[in-house]
Amino acid sequence: MEPEAPTDDLLALTLELAGSLDARTVMGRILERSLTVAGADRATLSSFVGDGLVIEASVGTGGEVTWVGRAYQTESLARQPLVQELFETRQTVLGGPMTTSQAHTEFREALDRVLHTATVPVLEAGELVGMLVLSRYADQAFVGSDIPNLTAFGALAGLALRNAKLYEDATAATRRLQAAAEAAADVATLQDLPALLQRIIKHACQAAGADSAAVMRVEADEGVVEATSGIAPLGSRWPLAAEIRDAIDAGMPIQVATAQTDIEAALEPYASPYSHALVAPLRFSDDLLGILVMGRHHGREPFSAGDIAGLRHFVTPAALVLHNGRLVHRLREAEKMKRDFMNIAVHELRGPLTVIEGYTELLMADEAVHLDEESAKQLATIRRQAAHARTLAQDLLTLARIESHDLGVAHDRLIVGELVTAAIERALPRSRLRSGTIEMHGVEAVQAVGDTALVSRVLDNLLANAIAYSVRRPVITVTVAAENRTVAVRVQDNGPGVGEDERERIFARFARGAGHGAVQGSGLGLYLSRECAQRMGGDLVLEESGAEAGSRFLLTLPAA
């Protein structure tokens, strides 16, 4: 009596398969149950992948199984009469043993014991995607009444195979996306363009399993190598082969066999050891930023669909990072040009200004030169304006250095009181012109860490502002104190004060206090002073200000 159709078992296995993410475990149970129902000794499930066959699972007795998970050419299987009939009819084939002499050596031990086989097709949308082979070692042939059960298990095995593939593809896609995200995050940390290009090459090779790669920028009908890990020297030029143009037009990676394409001719001068190439455009919006070309050495398999998908996931964020990297590179180049221009301009200005200041001082000091009151005023104005021009030029140079992150800052031990005293001495002549006074209070010997030139410049700016913005006789007090691991320098004036809505704006570039348009200045003093203070590890703030009380600026520096 033949076994009855295992309806309950099939239903239970189907439900288990539908609710399980581990399709391969369920696949094994399906095969185990098929042995019982079909009275077989071994069940083996295989899938067809391209021109090959992969052993997906095998259960039963009859020798050690070493072939699960391995791939074999279907050409040798096609010589088996039972398998050949399966290919032709796509129906279950019942028969005797497989032909051992035609089998792969790994199968022969198991096949030697087989007397009867049933070969069941695994179909998906009418296409043959695999086969289920059941074997009996006893002399009991499979018969027609076995076919319904075998067909049912074949369909269920096919469902398990499909679910397993979908799950593995999804898992692989998740890994590729995660790898692409991690690679993009790693690349995004770099701002140096050559280092960025090399990191893109590294991660692209890892994503696609390539041996070497190069990034090219497109110039007319040629690609110029900007970065490489061995495909071609930097600066070498490739004609844009048809395959490269196809990849550009498609906007996605394209694989080519170098021996059959123009790419081999392009690589020939560099003794290319590559048999397969993968070409991918690096695009951001409508801009072609470059072309990624990678290769595999002779003897390796072509790039798989998974390799190409891994690269596709990576090139999109890589193109965005490369776009940003090129912008940063161009910005740095522009900043360098601006800095170089400012250096030259200030150098060219200093010479004439120094001459002007020198001659005016000589004329004003020479007793042999008799100047009337009006001429003396004019000479004083010339000297004052020349000094202002020199200060403005120096401010612009400092601004350029700050914005290009090229401002050199020393971290020396400073006696702050000495620097304050020197700054007051420099400011006193201007203050006395307006009958003003400047006093210093506090601990003169307190020490801070900073740059002598920058601290002196900040103090000069604060005192100059206190004098310039006073509407009556300037009365200025400077105090020095040690506070909470910092040195605090406060500059108090008796000016008109700063409105609430102006207290941060006055530290912006080219900002001028409201209602003080007649005061001479570049509008850079407070901005540069705060920037200098912060680069020394301190700060500059407007601590207090009022119409009656004037303004008090606080400069803090790290204590020594």
From TrEMBL:
Q: Which GO terms describe its cellular component?
A: plasma membrane
EC code(s) of this entry? 2.7.13.3
Taking every annotated instance into account, which residue ranges of this chain make up the domain Histidine kinase? 344-560
As its record notes, the protein acts as a catalyst of: ATP + protein L-histidine = ADP + protein N-phospho-L-histidine
Q: Which CDD domains match?
A: HATPase, HisKA
Q: Which SUPFAM superfamilies match?
A: ATPase domain of HSP90 chaperone/DNA topoisomerase II/histidine kinase (SSF55874), GAF domain-like (SSF55781)
InterPro entries for the chain: GAF, GAF-like_dom_sf, HATPase_C_sf, HATPase_dom, His_kinase_dom, HisK_dim/P_dom, Histidine_kinase_KdpD, Sig_transdc_His_kin-like_C
Q: Which GO terms describe its molecular function?
A: phosphorelay sensor kinase activity
Q: What class of enzyme is it?
A: transferase
Question: Which keywords does this chain's UniProt record carry?
Answer: Kinase, Phosphoprotein, Transferase, Two-component regulatory system
The record's section on Gene3D superfamilies has:
1.10.287.130, 3.30.450.40, Histidine kinase-like ATPase, C-terminal domain (3.30.565.10)
Write down the PANTHER family for this protein, in alphabetical order. Answer: SENSOR PROTEIN KDPD
UniProt protein name? histidine kinase
